[in-house]
Amino acid sequence: MTVRNIFSYYVFPFFILSLIEGAAVLFGTMMNASVTVPLAIMIIGLVLFYWWKRKKMDRSVYKMNVCIFLAVSALDLILLVISKGSFHSSLISILSVPLFPFIPMIVMYLIIGSHESLHLVLFLTLFANVLISRFFLYGTSNLKKLLIPVLSGCLFLTSGYMMYRNSPQQKYSGHGFDYMNGYSSTDFSDRMVYSSPVKLPVLDHPSSLLIENEEEMVRMDGAEACYPMYASIALNIYQNIAEIEKSYVLNNKPFDNGKYVTFTNSVNGYSRLIDGNVDLFFGARPSVKFTEWAESMGKEIMLEQIASEAFVFFTQGDNPVDSLTSEQVKAIYHGDITNWKEVGGKDQEIIAFQRPAESGSQIMMEYFMGDVSLKQPLTYEIFDSMAGVINVVAQYHNEKGALGYTFRYFLEELHQEKNVKMIAIDGVEPTAENISSGAYPLITPVYCAYMADNQNPSVQKILDFLLSEDGQYLISKSGYAPLN
After folding, report:
1. Nearest to 186 by CA among 201, 197, 175, 194
2. What are the tens digits of pLDDT across the range 143-195?
3. Which of 113, 166, 154 is nearest to 130 (CA)?
4. Are 226 and 458 in contact (CB under 8 A)?
5. Dihedral (CA of 264, 267, 270, 271) sign
6. Cα-atom radius of gyration of the chain, to the nearest Å?
7. The overall pTM is greater than 0.85
């Protein structure tokens, strides 16, 4: 392994190819192929490079490629062990030292925040480099010489993948469904106004409210669980909304997810409502933070209850505990009860998950706790290219002893969590009948929020429709308990 070989067959080709990769990474990401497109271009480039150099190569080039591949793979595995399987760790900078020819590609991946794709492309590129260089040197003869790098590569890749899958940011990052411009953790592809076929309730007769002119259509936003509900409202009252939204989204991806029927979350939705970027927000009540923010601007958030929803606690399906009292739940989340045997279950630690601050379910949880403080939530560290190392609230993971909370709609209608069961509170199960009758103790209102100074006449028309027979029918068919 000479300095000349290192420069000629490692530094030079990979730096040039990495410059090309910059555009390839961005193009591949836009196609949801942040691994396959860059890797394909890299492999094609390596084949052309070694074909060009085929008469000047010797065995030392192949040996050098094997050594680089094994050394970098071993270092990557060591870093994964040190960082507990986190590809987001700032330790990635250490890996960049032996991989300095890849700097243009590494920078682009870090900019788009695709750390996992970066590691996979680097690993597979170096592995392909070994195979391609060997082919141009030896052809298909003496394949046994490939045994050591192939087996080593499989070992490193398998070990790294297993550690990565069990790292905190993978176990506790939630569902991670990158949808609706990154806001959703649930697949709503069949519940959009322009889905075909669409899985949204439709009236079997002309709607009592029909808005035909696009200029009169108000902009809607809401919490994730409410999206199918207000999407069905828009589908039934907005003329040609399917064509309008489909055309808008196709022309604005990946920067937006709707023109009149948009979706973000409780945090961004209330921010947009206060700023005047949307007219209606569907979801839980605003947090104190947003109420005070609106008041500081001389504005007032108005709330109209349109339905009821159950706030539920859930655990593993095989957990013997079927019911908890409200006081027991508060004691668990305050930190006084830490083992399931204290509430009639197994001798097993209670892993009580919380939700991110300002989310709809976390606001409801704080309201439920009242004067009882919540203990510090489970968190883990991730590395963000803009903010550095930050703490993130751990999301529910279906492991032994886990306890979580959400709105019933997620579990019953969207089947977001698997192999779980809802726990009865104070001996009452969160069934549709108990919610409608008011017997279940943790019923939360579902609101349509608007700003008091909004002068759009369609706002009041839609509010009236939501409380009408047609509106309440669509709400009930969307999975919520109607008011009447």
Report:
1. 175
2. 566 566 666 656 655 655 565 566 666 677 766 555 555 566 677 778 888 88
3. 154
4. no
5. negative
6. 27
7. no
Six token digits for residue 308: 């009821």
- The neighbouring-strand residues paired with 312 are 406
The C-alpha atoms of residue 13 and residue 5 are separated, in whole angstroms, by 11
197 cis-preceded (ω within 30 degrees of 0): yes
Q: CA–CA separation, 7 vs 121, rounded Å?
A: 21
Single-letter code of the amino acid located at 354: Q
Q: Tell whether the torsion through CA atoms of 418, 419, 424 and 428 is positive or negative.
A: positive
Residues 445-484: pLDDT tens digits?
899 999 999 999 999 999 999 999 999 999 999 888 888 7
Q: In whole angstroms, give the CA distance from residue 435 to residue 161.
A: 44
In tens, the pLDDT along 364-376 reads 898 899 999 999 9
What are the structural domains of the chain?
3-171 (no CATH), 173-484 (3.40.190.10)
Please, what is the Cα angle at 351 between 350 and 355, to 5 degrees?
Answer: 135
Residues 281 and 222: beta-carbon distance below 8 Å = yes
